[in-house]
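Researcher: Go.
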Amino acid sequence: DKNKTNRLSENFIKKQKSIVKSYEAMGPLPSFTCIPYEIFDIPEKGSMVSFAESNAAVFSNSRLGLLTNKESSLSALASSVTGKAPLSDLRIEEFRHPKVVIKPDFRLETELDYGLVGYFTGKIVKDSCVAFDSIPEKQGTIKMKSLSAAIGTSGSCGMFTLREKAKEVISYGKKECDIIKDELNTSEEGDLIALGSPQLGMNELSLLDNLLEGKKFTKRCLIYCARAIHKQATQIGLTSRIERAGGEFICDSCTCLTPLITRGEVDSVITNSIKGAYYLNHSNRVGVALKDLMTIVKEYTN
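Model: Structure:
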């Protein structure tokens, strides 16, 4: 976030500015976000798009009816320049139907529950599309974002459906859930709270605002969101209320895969994000305490 002071090295900042300058010279909109589906106008159902961010690819294929593969940054860039993409995988109708159904045998309640089953699914399903049994078709954006991001983190699967059937059924129970949580939950506590992997949208900020009413964080809480979302939230007073509760907004950035959270400054982080947990553990090399958002607010506010 160029509007905030930080401890990033001059060399890192210089390289980031060089990348931004190179992209801007090509004429794109500098959104710096992993949730384009919450910021830009959505093309009509059936449109071809090219999304490098895995949560955006999974969410757009699964919930918006768009057609994209899980692109790399370079292949998505090539599509933006040429207006074309390879006609392969999830751009072809036959690959957009599942061969495997994941069937939870207990009720999924929180966004963390959805993230855990998503991570499990990505690890074991090698097909491009998977189905879920017992998940409501009209489930809200927050839980579907968590599911999409987790699927995209742990494997190659790029789409899910909540309606179709398949011959192979894989059960997902408390045992499987605990195994996944034990893998990612590497600390019981954390030095700070990190929210926003994927970046938080208006739905999450509104929920957080409601949960924080009359409360203050007892630990430092970093909130990552797109600048466009931050601007929108500011206009209706959300950001000021969350900041009064101790939340710190960081725009144009990511919870993980940046040196904003490092082992040199913190030993462990509290988050509700499966994607964040995976990369904080493996890339940032810090411990992670996984808790759903309601639990985080309950345990770390007064």
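Model: Strands lie at 100-104, 129-132, 159-161, 168-172, 192-200, 220-225, 247-251, 268-271, 287-290.
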